[in-house]
């Protein structure tokens, strides 16, 4: 029944905002097309005066937080949407009315199994922020620390599940009937969203991500991540150190505090590349609401990151892919890019390198038309993925996540300091990464990494060798080879032993001749010389 009511609401919003403009009517079967043209909503011309992208944004707001968040995430898929639609959806803000503080307290008390007044010296009933998934309250621990308490909205899981089911129905219809239905992969996009949003519901996993990121940047002047109070963390409640930075989007305040905007913008890029190439662990939800700046030293501004619900990790293969390709790209060596793809099996071995190189060149050259400081790494990667997909390369979701984060970071950096030269900030990172990866130190590190395993296996070595020989023996052809080799070895050993014997006899005979030659009255000189000659001949011929 509830589902039906929700469906009616969606239909109403669809009609109200005339979202039929997104439906390619000419591709529908004739009866649906007829129904479409006769539909009474077509008499509602009012919203038509508004661009359809704006109408879609307003419709998502009307449908509530789950749809708003979907729109926000969708806005980062610039590989799928038109620039106009992506820009419009990026305006979505998931500020939603808070739920009651009484309810928030109940959830906290149930999760932490204690009274709020026994856990906190102070608990602010007015929430600090209220978003689609969670609400945040400021508080103070009994030990005096200022903290924030993040509480997941009640019953949000059921709401998400229901809304996503409806989104999937819409996605299936879209995939079936829309002109771009297959290319835009709507079902995959919705499934992806389901995965992301459910991931955000587990605050224990968010707390663990925060702790890891904090450790990675311990003592770094670049980034600060607030501490987590594990004793007070559960799946739906998280208590974290409160931070007091300036929101990164508040450029006016940052400037008024005398912040060095160039350093700030460069540090953003540095943080990103360090996360990717040093730690292989990156904050993947770097929207302005999650980034603050500590301006205590305006010449050395430090980033503060919160909300580590979405993080990305890269395998060594992904890192390798990224670093080598970015370096080759910036040297405009498209042949190298194409070769790398084929060599590492990212695209099929049958791919013609020259043809692939041409395809990459044609999408990248226009980008390099611009001055270096205007080139977008994110766009570049996006283009590369698009070409690679045409050549049947499955781009890993982690790389797509990274590319979206990179677009965010770049946008942010250029907003702070429009002349930001990403390449000169990133190049040293990439190059030192390559050196670290390929240089003697990397080999030494690898030996060090493997050594414990080798040592651990040391005592089992004879057994391992024996086992390998046994398994080797199991193959008849190998056995025959092995037997042959053994025979060869035996006969060679045999030969060597015989040779040694003959050499000994020859030496003995020659030595006897020598002795008799120098011993008066033993034999005459001729007999002695004959003995010496016989001994030498014996050695030469039989030894
Ligand atoms: N440690 C903190 N110290 C101070 N303020 C905080 C802290 N954590 C969160 N906030 C405030 O609460 C707001 C929402 O927090 P957070 O981003 O973690 O929630 P969210 O529900 O995951 O939101 P979204 O996913 O929409 O970004 C932040 O924008 C910030 O203003």
From TrEMBL:
GO BP terms: regulation of ubiquinone biosynthetic process; ubiquinone biosynthetic process
EC id: 2.7.-.-
Keyword Transmembrane: yes
Family: Belongs to the protein kinase superfamily. ADCK protein kinase family.
Record: active site: 285
UniProt cross-references to PANTHER family, sorted A to Z: CHAPERONE-ACTIVITY OF BC1 COMPLEX CABC1 -RELATED (PTHR10566), PROTEIN ACTIVITY OF BC1 COMPLEX KINASE 7, CHLOROPLASTIC (PTHR10566:SF113)
Name of the protein described by the UniProt record: Probable protein kinase UbiB
